[in-house]
Specification:
11 strands; 16% helix; five-stranded mixed sheet; alpha+beta
């Protein structure tokens, strides 16, 4: 670990940080997430910028099913002043209805990131002023980045020339056997 990273690691001792591949991660309980982030934004940490916030589904993570909570919101922070980066992971306490506090009051840039995590993973952000879908259609059913979402989805969309509009219908994918076909010229392997 570099001396600069070691200094941050020591400052974060109260959060029980973990270092892996020269990156520091802290885990914060959902009930304490907003307060912890406000402290991380202030001095001496100075994480004035939220680089990214994403959802994670740990239903099957690594080689075996994961023990513990399934959904997490992960924030990536940057301190331009100190040249530090930090990952803050917050697990949702309830897998059936994942909720974590919104970070918009701390970093306004969290707005669209939280909407994306809601849309793709179904993670609710308590206190978010406008939590609605951002990438999928308004009538979309489910959350496509969840590990239990079918790869083909539930409905397909197509244009119907008779009705002159777009229609939704159940997915109709016919199973087929994928056999590679090799096309070679005649006398391909013969010596000349």
């Amino acid at each position: 670990m570099t001396p600069r990273l070691q200094k941050l690691f020591d400052l974060l001792a109260e959060f029980s940080p973990r270092e892996r591949l020269n990156e520091i991660t802290i885990e914060v309980e959902a009930s304490k997430c907003r307060d912890a982030c406000e402290r991380l934004k202030a001095a001496p940490f100075g994480f004035e910028e939220l680089i990214d916030l994403c959802g994670v589904d740990y239903a099957s993570y690594g080689d075996a099913p994961r023990e513990g909570r399934r959904f997490a919101a992960v924030a990536h922070l940057l301190s331009v002043t100190n040249n530090w980066r930090l990952r803050v992971r917050t697990f949702c306490p309830d897998d059936a209805f994942p909720v974590v506090p919104s970070l918009i009051e701390v970093w306004p840039s969290a707005n669209w990131y939280e909407r994306e995590a809601f849309d793709l993973f179904g993670i609710m952000f308590e206190g978010h002023p406008d939590l609605r879908r951002i990438l999928t259609d308004y009538g979309f059913v489910g959350h496509p980045f969840r590990k239990d979402f079918p790869l083909s989805g539930y409905v397909e969309m197509r244009y119907d020339p008779e009705q002159k509009r777009i229609i939704y219908q159940p997915v109709t994918i016919d199973p087929r056997e994928v056999t590679p076909r090799i096309v070679r010229e005649e006398h391909y392997a013969e010596e000349k």
